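quick one, 295 residues, struct below
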Amino acid sequence: MAGGHGGMDHSPFKGWVQWHPQHGADVFSNAGTQHYPFKPAVRKPVCAHGMDKMGKCLKPMPGDADGDGVLDPKDQCPKTPFGLMVDMKGCSMDADGDGVRDSMDRCPDTPAGYPVDERGCTLDSDRDGVIDPHDKCPGTEMGVSVDAVGCDGAPDVDGDGVLNAVDACPDTPEGLMVSANGCWKVDGIYFNTNSHSIKTKGIMLLKEAAAVLKKYSHFRVGLHGHTDARASDAYNMSLSKRRAEAATWYLNEKQGISRERLEPMPFGESKPAVENAQSATEMQLNRRIELHRIP
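---
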């Protein structure tokens, strides 16, 4: 009687099998009890100029080696990677106009006019993490913790009593009077009723202001003219303009301050120092000019 088990036919074990890309299945071990042939996943080809609907690589158009749509004789960037938008010269676009092509630009929305580094990002000269256009304290020493405007994390870097977070002039020199926004101001220059003639005390204050402007040549100031509430709005606006221009003239003609640094700003009766002034003293406090540094 022929050997067998219940009539079942058994094939001999052929060993472990792996798939070879050139000639199919290869046996690499005959130890064990089972047979596991397999195929690797099929990878799509990498195409330099894209694929068609059938998954086949496209060939570049004759005379356009990089397939960007600009013929080789006019293509100033003949090796543009596939898929990038190009200009009429065949070079990748520079949407923000910073001189760094979009394909290399790490900051593609740089504001116009600001210098950038080789990555196309706005410069941060002192490397404090705040880019130069927003840095109100350039030149911060390396390692110093800064706030949102690039100033020392101390609450009041210039010591003028105004916190950095709301200080529009964080570089105010020590000892200068400032307004609520942290910028240098001069007040106390008052006028007689219906007059734009500057009094003796006002002249003295303007001389002191001129000394500051000469020392800090980067300062620009607005000269704010004001009136009391008597007379019409139109008349008071005209009078406040004459007062602001009188102080501007004095600083320019008598003290030699450049006119480009002085900006007369008439406000009429719209910004009283004393609301609803009734007495002569209160109304005089409203007839004034103030100097405010322009941030």
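The mean pLDDT is 81.
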